[in-house]
Amino acid sequence: MNGFRSQQWHLKEVARAIFDFYINSSIHVALAIVAFTVLTMLDLQLGLNGQLLAFIFCSSIIGYNVTKYVSGDRFSLDDMNTTEKGILMVSLLSGVLLLYILFTLTWPVILLASLLGLVTVWYNGPVFWGQVHLRKVTGMKIFVIAFVWAAATVMLPVVSAGRPLSKLVWIEGLQRFFFVVALTLPFDIRDVRFDTYQIGTLPQLFGIKKTRIIGLLVLTIVVVLQALKGPFVWDHFLLVTGISVLTGILVMQTVVRQTRYFTAFWIEGIPILWCGLQFVI
How many CB atoms lie within 10 A of CB 66? Predict the structure, then answer.
């Protein structure tokens, strides 16, 4: 019996280690960004583009892993543990695949992706005007993240499909922007203990209670924008409303000291859930 319990405990530890690697290597957040892109392709009837989805997936892994792990003196092969070396391998493989896919994309897509990459680099470190980081400009953090996510998941597939920037595309982009703002608030609430005051996140500027209310107002805008899309489809409207309600509930439940996977898995998993339900209806 003790041997069975020991084996069961070992399997749980292995499963948790794999799950943690899935989260920490940014695979989960990359899938969330891909899910948003699929939603755009379905909403705007662009057709699913596997190459672009793979490009966005690999770009997201590289972008987030660079943001999380390559900063100052943290990046040292000698100091890396097994997990960090595994994350480095995932990033390198993503980089190789990214370069391969890059040659299959059109120049407008490459140009837009390069601009978004430049914004991401500028977010993490100084590019223009001396030592200015976008991340450290007061009040900019959440809006830079929302802009990059919206542009990558809405504008890239539209440009790739050669479609014009119609009214529906702009509504889709605004809706994605506001939803990502709401989705980012739990992370800002979590990080309020660690972010310097200079960053000026919404919880720092308005407090946690008012930030939760702002989240609900932003999600209301998301639902209103869905109603402005034409032609009006009840199934899609109810799905967006339900996802917004679920997100609102999670935003209202967000506290500074969160459980381990509250933001890293459950919040970031909302786009994946949304995309999955979109296929069901």
Answer: 17
Assigned domain for 75 exists: no
Question: pTM for the complete prediction?
Answer: 0.91
Residue 77 lies in a domain: no
Segment 197-235, tens digit of pLDDT: 767 788 988 999 999 999 999 999 999 999 998 788 899
Residue percentage of the chain with pLDDT more than 90: 63
Cβ-contact 36, 176 below 8 angstroms:
yes
Report if residue 76 sits inside a domain: no
Indicate the number of domains in the chain.
1
71 pLDDT higher than 80: no
CA dist 237 and 248 (Å) reads 16
For residue 179, the tally of other CB atoms under 10 A from its CB is: 27
Q: What domain range includes position 226?
A: 2-68+83-280
In this predicted structure, the answer to whether residue 263 has a pLDDT above a threshold of 70 is yes
Higher pLDDT, 121 or 133: 121
